[in-house]
Design goal:
heterotrimer; A alpha+beta; B mainly alpha; C mainly alpha; B: two-stranded antiparallel sheet; C: mainly alpha; Ferritin
């Protein structure tokens, strides 16, 4: 019987130069080299990428949905962080 | 107890607002179980579905057909992989799901328990089986569970060439020799009814539908999708010059839909229960591939561990 | 004898037959990710074969097509080396066959890029990218399996011992190879051989595998004398075209 399964990896793909790597999905691989190659074979079959990041899923730390109100709601009312908060006469250009 | 009720209300409210549920969000156990069942069945269907078509890769009659079929069957492996991944976000490992398939606890689409007897079957699978699958799958792109919906967006995008690939094969056969046209009609005769069965039992006999619709895991009922499928196939069949094997198939002006004959539900349940023409072969084949691959998976893992150990030793020596 | 036609067919047949063998894995791989990987190799190779057959048909000038080349030639017209027609066996054996061929295929295409024949040079340039990845893939698996578990080591060593006898043929020049080399179209197999030897020695060393010392070599593929396996491959591959002569698919 099998002792150990190949771990799960998360795959991030840069679709073209100048863009962020974006989460594409996950897959199983025995090591990081294989994870990159599997990602290439699975997630870029149609020219979807020019660069790949992989990270073993267990190394991802995520915020908890239970805390999401405390984490994210306080940013809701900080309107002064947005340019539309400030009144500038219409004649002023390029600002 | 009040807590659970409040959580459930909040959960349903989120779904009603068309906000996606994500892996770490609270969800009712039954929702999680339903999703695991449905997504894994879907993944298994992709993987088992590789076999009937895979049969013909080595016999594809031209190099163009050969690469198209290979790429298509490979896509199905990819789709199975995306779906297993979506399922893993619900806290169940792929290996566990694969075991369920191999020991018969998990189901997959019964259509793949029918044999592919001639090259025309490859075309008909693309046209009817993929056509029915697409009909089922497009609404799933809006499913309430985020990872499933995202996997389905990718699947649907990639599937779009599959049906055209099949239909093109059939168009060529329809303009071909008498033997080719005979092959074509024979394949349509064999696959038409099983394709209609792909949408599942009639709504009246589908106990999970109501709950799944409420959770927006399902967006249309089995019968709605089946009707839509029949309606589009009729014209497509005309262009191929084939007869759909149903004497009751005719346009109903009043309903604005085609009427069609009664599905043989005995056959449907027989195949679901494991008595279709190829149930045993399909599972045996999958199991064999998995078992024969065990030493490979083990070796790769052993090597990875060795490498990690070597690296650790090296870095401790440097320090 | 039309050497350019023959030469193109030699290269094409290798790609098609190996691609065909790999396509047999589709749906049966040891894990989903590797199923997909093997199919990618297969698609690359069949793609190379198609470009080469199209060119061969043009060189021949009788209005034949890529499919005529693949589907309507007989066993003795096929010029692939014996190595590529050998059975898949287990995954380890498939990897060994792939590695032994990739280690040849890469320097072969590298040299062919400099061919005086522009079409062959262009096909080589495009194929080289694919084959570079193939060699990387098969080398890594040689190492994983060779240095993995006792069982995996034993399996790949056995496969290596059995397939070794088909390696010398890769470098044995046929009359066509010699004529094409003389015209600056073909590749110097002697140079390819030394590259192959060093790649193989290096990977086997890292993989903790023993290089077989047997000198009993089999050959004949380039001259159309094959092992029994090719007949079965062609019987399966060509059957529809043979049963329905002239039909369009």
């Amino acid at each position: 019987m099998e002792k150990k399964n190949w771990p799960l990896w998360e795959v991030f793909i840069r679709s073209r130069q100048g863009l962020h790597h974006k989460h594409a999905g996950s897959l199983h691989a025995a090591d990081e080299q294989m994870a990159i190659e599997n990602a290439r074979d699975v997630y870029t079959r149609r020219n979807e990428g020019i660069s790949i990041w992989v990270v073993e899923s267990k190394h991802i730390h995520a915020s908890s949905p239970a805390e999401s109100e405390a984490l994210f709601d306080p940013a809701n009312d900080k309107v002064y962080r947005h340019p539309t908060f400030y009144d500038i006469p219409d004649e002023i250009k390029h600002m | 107890m009040a807590d659970i009720t409040a959580l459930e209300a909040h959960f349903q409210n989120t779904i009603d607002q068309e906000i996606k549920i994500e892996p770490k969000d609270w969800m009712p156990d039954a929702y999680r179980k339903t999703l695991i069942r449905q997504i894994s069945q879907h993944a298994h269907s992709e993987i088992v579905g590789m076999l009937p078509e895979g049969n013909w890769i080595t016999r594809a009659p031209s190099l163009r057909r050969k690469v198209a079929l290979l790429a298509k069957v490979q896509d199905e492996a990819g789709h199975g992989l995306y779906l297993y991944s979506a399922c893993e976000t619900l806290g169940v490992e792929r290996n566990e799901l694969v075991e369920q398939l191999h020991d018969g606890r998990a189901k997959y689409s019964s259509i793949f328990n029918y044999p592919t007897l001639t090259w025309a079957d490859i075309g008909v699978i693309g046209w009817l089986v993929d056509g029915a699958a697409i009909m089922n799958q497009v609404p799933l792109c809006r499913c309430s569970y985020g990872p499933y919906a995202r996997a389905m967006v990718r699947v649907c995008k990639e599937e779009s060439f599959h049906q055209r690939q099949g239909y093109e094969i059939l168009l060529t056969l329809s303009k071909g020799t008498e033997a080719q046209r005979r092959m074509l009609q024979d394949a349509v005769n064999r696959w038409w009814w099983p394709s209609l069965m792909m949408f599942g039992p009639n709504d009246a006999d589908s106990p999970h539908t109501a709950q799944s619709m409420k959770w927006k895991i399902k967006r249309f009922t089995n019968d709605e999708l089946r009707q839509k499928f029949v309606d589009v196939c009729v014209d497509q069949a005309k262009l191929l010059n084939v007869t759909l094997p149903d004497p009751d198939l005719k346009w109903n002006e009043e309903r604005g839909h085609y009427d069609f004959g009664e599905i043989n539900w005995d056959e449907f349940w027989q195949v679901v229960k494991g008595h279709g023409p190829c149930n045993k072969e399909r599972i045996d084949t999958r199991r064999r591939a998995h078992e024969e691959g065990a030493w490979v998976r083990e070796a790769a893992m052993a090597f990875a561990e060795k490498q990690a150990r070597r690296r650790a030793e090296e870095s401790s020596q440097v320090a | 004898m039309n050497h350019l036609l023959n030469y193109t067919l030699q290269i094409a047949d290798n790609a098609l037959i190996l691609g065909h063998r790999l396509s047999e894995w589709c749906g049966h791989g040891p894990i989903l990710e590797q199923d997909i990987a093997l199919t990618n190799l297969s698609l690359d190779l069949v793609g190379q074969a198609r470009s080469l057959y199209q060119y061969a048909a043009k060189v021949e000038g009788h209005g034949r097509t890529e499919d005529d080349m693949a589907y309507l030639r007989d066993e003795m017209d096929f010029k692939n080396v014996l190595l590529v027609e050998q059975k898949n066996g287990d995954f380890g054996r498939t990897i060994v066959r792939q590695f032994l061929f990739d280690a040849y295929h890469l320097p072969f295409y590298e040299a062919l890029q400099r061919s005086h024949d522009e079409t062959l040079a262009a096909i080589a340039e495009k194929s080289l990218k694919e084959v570079t990845y193939h060699l990387r893939y098969s080398s890594e698996w040689m190492i994983r399996l060779g240095d993995g578990t006792e069982e995996s080591h034993r399996r790949v060593q056995t496969a290596l011992d059995e397939l070794w006898r088909y390696t010398a043929e890769l470098f044995q020049p046929s009359a066509t190879d010699e004529a094409m080399l003389a015209e600056g179209i073909g590749v110097d197999l002697g140079a390819v051989k030394s590259r192959w030897e060093s790649t193989v020695a290096e990977i086997l060393r890292v993989a903790t595998l023993q290089q077989p010392d047997s000198n009993w070599m089999q050959n004949g593929g380039k001259a159309g004398r094959h092992t029994e396996h090719l007949g079965y491959i062609l019987a399966e591959m060509q059957y529809l075209q043979r049963v329905h002569p002239g039909a369009e698919w």
